[in-house]
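Appendix B. Raw example, untouched.
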Amino acid sequence: MTGPDQAALEDDAAELIAQLKELAGADPADVRQVVAEVLAALDRAAGGALREHLPEAIRLDAGLGPAASARP
């Protein structure tokens, strides 16, 4: 993705980051908690498919456990 589409996506991402920071306040732990809750809700809405695309540390923070591909 390049050009106007990429710029719009980057603007949307920057706006979302600003909204999360405002919502959670200045405390990084609060921001981390809000993000974890949002990711967990998105994973539930996606039927567990989102966790496959998240790094392990983020999955664990969000309480999503290991990805299915990491299970024995």
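End of appendix B.
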